[in-house]
Amino acid sequence: MKKSSGAAKKAAGVTKKAAAAQKKAPAAKKTAAAKKAPALVKKTAAAAKKTPAAVKKAASVEKPAKKAAPVQKIAVRPPAGESPTALVRRARRINRELAEVYPYAHPELDFENPFQLLVATVLSAQTTDLRVNQTTPGLFAKYPTPEDLAAANPEEVEEILRPCGFFRAKTKSVIGLSKALVENFGGEVPGKLEELVTLPGVGRKTAFVVLGNAFGFHRSGLRSEHAPDLCIP
């Protein structure tokens, strides 16, 4: 009987311990959950703080790019105290000195008159002068004057100008400038910068080439005292 009562006591003790362990387990879970809760709150607060920064970045990305400031043109002025007459004399002196240093200076393009030089210069864009010199003889043999080129069939001109590259655009330019010469200048190439730049496909650079090599004018508007081909623009 004593042994059975001892076993019963032991069983009762084990049962109490198991019940106590079951009570402690939920409490431990609650404590762990309570500890994790502040950490989650902190993470949520940090994410909330980061959100305005992300919004600011997005807003900065969406802002349109600022327009570049317009380029200011700086007028080139003669030295202080230099009169227009002195400026002309200085330009002529520089021209004489350049003619002595480069006595055989001449353009690489082949031409016989201002019209041929004008057309050849337009054709020289994005290609070599050698290629232009190989193309223009056939062009000018078939269309020797502005009147002839103005009345030309664009497709036939395109075939001639194909080796120069960009032949469609160049065909449009040379036919257009030929028509403008016929309609506005009596079929003659004008000798003034402001008139040359009105022709299709002719900019300031092309105009200076024509003025300097066909008419003997410098960029300053002074006529050369030497051969026209010494005036390299």
Structural class of the secondary structure composition? mainly alpha
Might you state the CATH topology name of the domain at 84-104 and 111-230? Endonuclease III, domain 1
State the name of the first-level CATH class of the domain at 84-104 and 111-230: Mainly Alpha
> So, CATH architecture of the domain at 84-104 and 111-230?
Orthogonal Bundle
Strand content: under 5%
Mean pLDDT, all residues: 76
* Helical amount: 55-70%
Could you provide a short overview of the structure?
The protein is mainly alpha-helical and 233 residues long. It has a domain at 84-104 and 111-230: Orthogonal Bundle (Endonuclease III, domain 1), CATH 1.10.340. Helix content is 64%, strand content 0%.
Keywords:
233 residues; mainly alpha; Endonuclease III, domain 1; 9 helices; disordered C terminus
Question: Mind explaining what this structure looks like?
Answer:
This protein is an all-alpha fold and 233 residues long. It has a domain at 84-104 and 111-230: Hypothetical protein, domain 2 (Endonuclease III, domain 1). It contains 9 helices and no strands. The protein has helices at residues 2-62, 84-101, 114-123, 129-142, 146-150, 154-161, 167-185, 193-196, 204-214. Helix 6 (154-161) crosses helix 7. The longest helix has 61 residues, at 2-62. The chain is extended, with a radius of gyration of 45 Å. The model is unreliable at 220-233 (pLDDT under 50).
